Amino acid sequence: MKGATNKEGFGLQFSNEQFVLSNCENCNFPTIWLGEKMIFPIQGISEPPNQDLPDEIKEDYEEARAISNLSPRGAAALLRLCIQKLCAFLGQPEKNINSDIKALVALGLPPKVQEALDIVRVIGNDSVHPGTIDIKDDRTTVNMLFKLVNFIAQKMITEPREIDQIYSGLPTDKLEGIRQRDGSTQSS
């Protein structure tokens, strides 16, 4: 290793063929690699959770982010747990994630949301069981799972909330006219 002081005279800089210093392509944050493994920052570069996720799910999501570099398998398992909790948040009994997804489909779950749920369910489950999917060092797959959890939250929580806010802002007489047209006596 070679050592030197920087131009301000502070600290030492070292070069070593095993370590690579680079910047993230997305956020330009510095990263340190030991061979093919990113060792800094410890937290992965996955996207933050959708702000409309319930706090309990956000906690699991953030824990998955914190370990995604060190244990992509562990992160995938935590993201599967997020999906299970998200199904419960959407009104399912949380006994069997596959049955919960099936019930949501029967209630009109959009096909792309169902596919996203199943992707996270299958990869998250198989990552901790010996067999078909091995993501021990697969940060790309785990980062895709983070995106899918946020996609599901966007479609099932954020977008309905936004429509409800806009709809409830319609004039009262117009809302009453819509309710009468649809034969509904309940208010939104």
Task: Walk me through this protein's architecture.
The chain has 188 residues and is mainly α. Helices cover 52% and strands 12% of the residues. The chain has helices at 55-67, 72-89, 97-106, 111-126, 139-168, 172-182; strands at residues 2-5, 12-15, 19-23, 30-34, 37-40. The strands form 2 sheets. Strands 3-4-5 form a 3-stranded antiparallel sheet, with no helix packed on it. Strand 4 and strand 5 (37-40) form a beta hairpin. Helix 1 (55-67) packs antiparallel against helix 2 (72-89) and helix 4 (111-126) packs antiparallel against helix 5 (139-168). It is elongated, with a radius of gyration of 23 Å. It starts with a strand and ends in a 6-residue tail after the last helix.
Count, helices: 6
As residue ranges, the low-confidence spans are: 1-6
* Arithmetic mean pLDDT: 82
Cα-based radius of gyration, to the nearest Å: 23 Å
* Widest β-sheet, arrangement of strands: 3-4-5
End-to-end CA span? 68 Å
The H-and-E topology, N to C, reads as EEEEEHHHHHH
Content-based structural category? mainly alpha
% residues in beta strands: 5-15%
What is the 3D shape?
elongated
Largest sheet: 3 strands, antiparallel
Tell how many strands the DSSP assignment holds: 5
Percent helix: 40-55%
Short recap of the structure:
With 188 residues, the chain is mainly alpha-helical. 52% of the residues lie in helices and 12% in strands.
